[in-house]
Design a protein that fits this description.
Length: 357
């Protein structure tokens, strides 16, 4: 996930099958989890027939970052006294935003002009948007797919101006779309796979550390180490440790869901999560509580039907607003199922947290 000397998170041992699946799921601008030295899982039942051709269903076509030029927005009427602030908001098409897209899930609304914004890094745009809508998160969602490996996400947010630009452009869009008295309330971050590189860079900027209200990591957290001393790379773990302390004190939300995918040359999601838990004195417990698969159109044909089943829970840990859930699975299909299912494994924590405030 992390590039160059920061951590050798190149694709490495992933089977060619995983490469093809990642291309289907993410499109040419997204990266599979750079961890990727994994075992290919054996199906529980015989593999399903190959998916129908892309022309059979629009859900089989990967979302792309750049869309055709949208139509000019229809002039909006001025909200009348007593009307909701979003009474004339135009959500008819996605808004291009600083190299990504700003989405307006059906679960988003604003009575008084305040809005919450989630920045999601890495993942098929349709799957991400539909998961946020399925979970019922009341927020607009900016989605960025920048390329292969977490280094591109680190580079994008190494300067705080990277996030400043997104927040500024989002505000402009909300005003132009017709949200009366538009003003940003809370900021959340989420990431799948290599998007974690951008999360840690954003948290390193003091001007944003306290402004970030919630973080959701979907099979994404990881950490490199010195090959000689085996010491953790502090720039990759310390921002998350600091944020975990805020979450334990219920000052912010940190939710981590992860698989058992093994990695080489750096710590996988399970071990890295353990380092975070140890730093705040929280222990895991065994669990067998399943979360159901969502029913969203974009999940069709992402993985073969034989693998399309809920993630199998192994462990969990909770204190304050720190929530961890570990699931079995060591192969690429498991990794992709985390993106398919995060509306039921991770996002309910965000809905509950923001719903209480």
């Amino acid at each position: 996930m992390l590039r160059r000397a920061r951590a050798p998170m190149a694709l490495g041992g992933l089977a060619l099958l995983a490469m093809g699946l990642a291309s289907l799921l993410l499109g040419s601008r997204s990266a599979p989890m750079a961890s990727a030295a994994v075992q290919v899982e054996a199906p529980i039942s015989p593999p399903a027939p190959p998916p129908p051709p892309a022309s059979a269903s629009p859900a089989t076509v990967p979302a792309v970052l750049a869309e055709e030029s949208p139509p000019a927005p229809t002039p909006v009427a001025t909200a009348k006294p007593g009307e909701r602030a979003d009474a004339h908001f135009d959500r008819s098409w996605r808004a291009p935003l600083a190299g990504g897209l700003l989405m307006f899930p059906p679960s988003w609304s604003s009575e008084d002009g305040q809005y919450d914004l989630v920045l999601h890094l890495n993942g098929n745009t349709d799957l991400v948007e539909e998961n946020y809508g399925f979970a019922g998160v009341n927020a607009v969602v900016a989605i960025l797919n920048l390329g292969v490996g977490s280094g591109v996400y680190e580079d994008r947010f190494a300067d705080p101006a990277g996030l400043r630009l997104i927040l500024s452009r989002a505000q402009d869009v909300m005003v132009a779309r017709g949200l009366k008295n538009a003003r940003l309330r809370r900021i959340g971050l989420s990431a799948w796979s290599s998007g974690y590189g951008g999360i840690i860079k954003i948290l390193q900027h003091e001007e944003f550390f306290d402004r970030i209200n919630a973080i959701v990591l979907v099979d994404s957290i990881h950490c490199g180490y010195d090959p000689h001393s085996k010491a953790l790379k502090q720039d990759q773990i310390e921002p998350t440790r600091r944020f975990a302390k805020r979450a334990v004190e219920s000052k912010a939300l940190l939710t981590i869901v992860h698989s058992e995918i093994e990695t080489y040359g750096y710590h996988n999601a399970h071990r890295t999560t353990d380092f975070v838990l140890e730093s705040v004195g929280v222990a895991r417990t065994a669990t067998n509580v399943f979360q159901p698969l969502p029913n969203v159109p974009a999940m069709k044909h992402v993985v073969p039907n034989a693998y399309m089943k809920p993630l199998e829970p192994l462990t969990e840990a909770h204190r304050g607003e720190l929530h961890v859930r570990g699931y079995s699975g060591t192969g690429p299909y498991t990794h992709m199922l985390h993106l398919i299912q995060f509306s039921t494994t991770a996002l309910p924590d965000l809905v509950a947290f923001w719903g209480r405030r």
